[in-house]
Amino acid sequence: NAGVMQNPRHLVRRRGQEARLRCSPMKGHSHVYWYRQLPEEGLKFMVYLQKENIIDESGMPKERFSAEFPKEGPSILRIQQVVRGDSAAYFCASSMRTGGVEKLFFGSGTQLSVL
Amino acid sequence: DQQVKQNSPSLSVQEGRISILNCDYTNSMFDYFLWYKKYPAEGPTFLISISSIKDKNEDGRFTVFLNKSAKHLSLHIVPSQPGDSAVYFCAAISRGGSEKLVFGKGTKLTVNP
Question: Which pLDDT value is given to residue B18?
Fold first, then answer.
């Protein structure tokens, strides 16, 4: 009964490189959310996906960031040409259905450090 | 533009005493509120929630109070235990709208033995 799995736990990139963060939702969950926590801040919503669909990406920066949740495999958050300001903890959460925020389970996060 | 505010970055209490964590919000559209607990190197875990139609919800040692007119909620933990030491996040959502949780910055609770 694995929980939400995120990998890698820690990712170090140099400015200009690409970062790929992976999230495998809990078994049976088809809704995935990505949140970002900057240092000394709360978690901020980035994107909400269902299988093969982006439902709400209003929290995603307009450039360099993209997310997908394919029919098979994990959800991927991709950051192109990373900058120092992208350094943060990125959390993925999953749920079985909409409207079930109490049943939202978070992964342990990926700590991205940009040198 | 912080819609959910936790003005105390940290709180320290003695084991056995009451811990009170506070949260204020500005968006009148929020109608559901949640508290999450987060240990270092882990993701947030759901603790307790309250709908805007209620003013109190209790679950064991944890009670959440909501004052809609003041746009204020609080989490009471009694009695506090050392294992409660963690960062507590207040979050809010407008259930008729998007699925986005809006989080406060968190309060780090330390319960001293």
Answer: 98
Rounded to a whole number of angstroms, the distance from the CA of A44 to the nearest CA of chain B is 7
Tell me which chain A residues have a C-beta less than 8 angstroms from the C-beta of B42: 108-109
Taking only the tens place, the pLDDT of each residue in B37-51 is 999 989 999 999 999
Q: Where are the alpha helices (DSSP H) in A1-115?
A: none
- Closest-CA residue of chain A to B102: A44
Measured CA to CA, the distance from residue B47 to residue B31 in angstroms comes to: 17
Amino acid residing at A113 = S
pLDDT > 90: percent of chain B: 87
From the CA of B23, how many Å to the nearest CA of chain A? 13
Please, are residues A32 and B96 in contact by the beta-carbon 8 Å criterion?
Answer: no
What letter does residue A102 receive in the DSSP assignment?
G
Report yes or no: A101 at the B interface, CB cutoff 8 Å. Answer: yes
Assess A108–B contact: CB distance below 8 Å, yes or no. Answer: yes
Q: Where are the beta strands (DSSP E) in B1-113?
A: 4-5, 10-14, 19-25, 32-38, 45-51, 56-59, 62-67, 72-77, 86-93, 102-103, 107-112
